[in-house]
Specification:
This protein is α+β, with helices and mostly antiparallel strands. The protein has a single domain, classed as 2,3-Dihydroxybiphenyl 1,2-Dioxygenase, domain 1 (Roll). It has two helices and eight strands, in the order βαββββαβββ. An eight-stranded mixed β-sheet has the order 2-3-4-1-5-8-7-6, with helices on one face. The two termini are 19 Å apart. The model has no long low-confidence stretch (mean pLDDT 87).
Length: 122
């Protein structure tokens, strides 16, 4: 095991509205200190985050040519070791995305092309 799942992040045009919807659906507390990034802390400890995406187009699942439009944040202790292990498993680092200005995240694609982030110190 490299890390543990910390947050499921969903792109959307209105983060607060979508967080409120899911709070009504599954419960939890909405943290809306930033209008572009709203977090729902669900009672069992699961975190859903909603990230503003002005050009968001809803997925047309189950169309096999469409995206499901989400990524996972995986919390790790040692980002260099976690990156090495993730690459060994078949991940690909997305160059030029993440870890700018010492941001505590790095962005990758899984073997099927879905994005995920390794995060630390959060």
């Amino acid at each position: 095991m490299i890390g543990r799942l910390r947050t499921v992040v969903v792109d959307c045009p209105d983060p607060r509205a979508l967080a409120d919807f899911y709070a009504g659906l599954i419960g939890g507390d909405v943290d809306a200190n930033d209008e572009d990034w709203v977090v729902l802390d669900e009672p069992n400890g699961t975190r859903l985050a909603f990230q503003r995406s002005p050009e968001h187009e809803p997925p047309s699942f189950p169309d096999p040519h469409a995206s499901q439009q989400f990524h996972l944040d995986v919390e790790v202790e040692d980002p260099d070791d976690a990156e090495r292990q993730a690459l060994e498993l078949g991940a690909a680092r997305i160059p030029g995305v993440g870890n700018e200005f010492d941001d505590p995240f790095r962005v990758f694609r899984d073997p099927a092309g879905h994005t995920f982030c390794l995060v630390w110190g959060v």
